[in-house]
């Protein structure tokens, strides 16, 4: 590198000269963190300025006679085709290997997140399907109960305190914690696990027998 005009001298380092000078005014202070109750370092850039002077890029070989004059060394522009570009001190092979490693990492991460999303979606759909089947089963039981009650009313054979499931036996179970009295012992034993109240669908924690006099 050969300076075309007068070189730039550093204001803080003695006998330090160059063709590109970058000045940064930075504030450094300690800030109290109310969450961790610790003092943390805080840095804030107040001002930045870059000074340049034209210079020539000359070959290290003597007598080459080839030089490139740089007028604006920091005027960096992307390619006209809109493609990405990299400014790095590494050689091409090292940069290519680094980019390929990044691509492999993101591919693996995408596959992992894809499997996790599919698993979550499967469990959500399974839960919704089970709830849908329970609602359909409850609706079917309510329809059968309504039809049986209508038939009993028409035939004058209404059974007092009849089980809402079989409509043939007398209610003999009190479901807790909801407190509904709606089932006989045989129908309670036939309920699928986990056992739920046929009326409100709340879980049955325990059953108290009901004795009819």
UniProtKB/TrEMBL annotation:
Catalytic activity: S-ubiquitinyl-[E2 ubiquitin-conjugating enzyme]-L-cysteine + [acceptor protein]-L-lysine = [E2 ubiquitin-conjugating enzyme]-L-cysteine + N(6)-ubiquitinyl-[acceptor protein]-L-lysine
Pathway assignment: Protein modification; protein ubiquitination
Pfam families hit by this protein: zf-C3HC4_3
Residue intervals of the RING-type domain: 163-201
Topological category with respect to the lipid bilayer: Multi-pass membrane protein
Keyword terms, alphabetized: Ligase, Membrane, Metal-binding, Mitochondrion, Mitochondrion outer membrane, Transferase, Transmembrane, Transmembrane helix, Ubl conjugation pathway, Zinc, Zinc-finger
Membrane-crossing residue ranges in chain numbering: 105-125
Enzyme class: transferase
Keyword Ligase: yes
Coiled-coil regions listed in the entry: none
GO cellular component: mitochondrial outer membrane
InterPro entries: MDM2_MDM4_MUL1 (IPR051652), Znf_RING (IPR001841), Znf_RING/FYVE/PHD (IPR013083)
Subcellular location as annotated: Mitochondrion outer membrane
Official protein name in the record: RING-type E3 ubiquitin transferase
